[in-house]
Amino acid sequence: MEHVTLHTGHQMPMVGFGTWQITGDQCVTCVRQALDLGYRLIDTARMYENEVEVGKALKASGVDREEIFLTTKVFQPDNSYAGTRRSIDQSLLRLDTDYIDLFLIHEPYDEDRDMVRAMKEALEAGKIRSLGISNYNKELYARFVAECGLVPAVNQVECHVFHQQGALKAAMGETVMQAWSPLTCGQRPVVTDPILTKIGEKYGKTAAQIALKALVQQGIPVVPKTATFSRMQENLDLFDFTLSSEDLAVIQSMDTGKTLFGWY
Ligand SMILES: NC(=O)c1ccc[n+]([C@@H]2O[C@H](COP(=O)([O-])OP(=O)(O)OC[C@H]3O[C@@H](n4cnc5c(N)ncnc54)[C@H](OP(=O)(O)O)[C@@H]3O)[C@@H](O)[C@H]2O)c1
User: Fold this and answer.
1) What sections of the chain are H helices per DSSP?
2) pTM of full prediction above 0.70
3) Any domain includes 113
4) CATH of the domain at 118
5) Which is the closest atom of ligand 1 to the Cα of 209?
């Protein structure tokens, strides 16, 4: 597994396991399988309603907590100082852990300055190790840094071969851009894409692996989600090959510069 060093000094795996839309017993099973396979980053959120199950899987895995990088996020209606304080403590309880590796503001809020105050207190108290944001575009990112007095360690945003977010990445300096929906969450058939499939044939890899590798190789960590065991293995198996600059250029030309979700 390759890692990126955040400006907080902490190491974050380049491939993590996304858990949106996996709940209940299936979540315990999938996170446990992912940890057994070697995933060491688990991406959850209060909004996913699976923190308890993620916590159970972490405990059941027997993997040392210090080896795992755990991300969770605060969402409305906790977009206030008191709400964020409460959200952090509740996430810690649900996840059954003493600390969160990366705590993100899930989406842009006008109240983010107050939320950051609560997050900084939690950082000082050892409840959180790195602070970040999610779904902030270039303008909102600049406003956040200026108004909140914090350079976030991570900005987790929509990013995949069809929306590679190069301008945002370039504008964020020390902040690491992490990709959510790196396989487009089924919005566009990336895993059967003929260009990616053809490139994959050269390396003995699937289109999904090429789509993920193209991001990772450009320094963009990814958190693909799958509830299918074989795909968990597939999505982790990215580190025994390197895309040529020609192939990377072809993939870069697939960028439409447009969101597939239109949420933010
Ligand atoms: N911060 C945010 O606002 C935000 C927003 C969205 C997502 N996220 C995070 O990012 C994670 C990933 O995003 P996502 O879940 O939206 O979508 P995704 O990872 O892009 O795609 C997941 C879909 O792709 C399928 N899949 C996964 N690996 C595959 C493979 N190797 N071959 C073929 N199909 C494959 C999965 O199917 P099966 O499960 O059926 O195998 C699932 O339908 C989330 O789980 C969440 O942790 C964050």
Assistant:
1) 24-37, 51-61, 81-95, 112-124, 138-148, 166-171, 194-203, 207-217, 229-236, 245-252
2) yes
3) yes
4) 3.20.20.100
5) 31
